[in-house]
Amino acid sequence: MGWVGIAVMVVSTAVSVYSQYQQAKQQEAANKYNAAVSEQNVELASRQADAQRKKINKAQEAAYGKQRALYGKSGVLLEGTPLDVMSDTWGEYEVDKKTTMYNARVKQGFLRGEAGQSRAAGEQAMATGYMKMGSTILSSGSKMYGATR
Q1: Which residues of 91-130 are buried (b: 16+ CB within 10 A; e: fewer)?
Q2: What pTM value is reported for the model?
Q3: Exposed, middle or buried by CB within 10 Å (0-12, 13-18, 19+), for 38?
């Protein structure tokens, strides 16, 4: 093989290596973007849970006020069974709030894990890209060496 053939192989190798590098960078960028989206969703989950908790608070206060007013209107004293009913109602709303916040923490944990996996996948894409580039260079070098003998 003459110098022209070797030059063509060098250019072909360079194009292949550059293409592999660009592909790895694109995969890394896509995974970084996915990680950023997951991290934004962690904040969104927190805001949604807080909004839901506030909504439950309002419903809790309204239910308590309504029960108190109805008992007062009917002349029932707020002791014994009426007080137990009001306490149970209040407690149910408290459980709803705690469940909402717990579910948000679970969702946030999942999303943080997802973000970490995306970041790791991006790093792995670059590592794989470098391995492919190295393999291409070595393979081409070996072919060129064989062609010049």
Answers
A1: eebeebbeebeeebeebbeebeebbeebbebbeebeeebe
A2: 0.72
A3: buried
* Residue with the two structure tokens 């070996």: 142
Other beta carbons less than 10 A from residue 140's beta carbon = 17
- The CA distance from 19 to 75, in Å, is 83
Contact status, residue 144 vs residue 6, Cβ threshold 8 Å: yes
Q: CB within 8 A of 126, min separation 6: which ones? A: 24, 25, 27, 28
Q: Find out whether 42 and 108 touch, Cβ atoms under 8 Å.
A: yes
pLDDT tens digits for range 67-104: 999 999 999 888 899 999 999 999 999 999 999 999 99
Q: In Å, how far are 43, 53, 95, 106 from 46, measured between CA atoms? A: 5, 10, 18, 11
Task: Look at the block and give the residue holding tokens 């309002």.
Answer: 58
Separation of alpha carbons 29 and 17, rounded Å: 18
Q: What is the CA radius of gyration of the chain?
A: 32
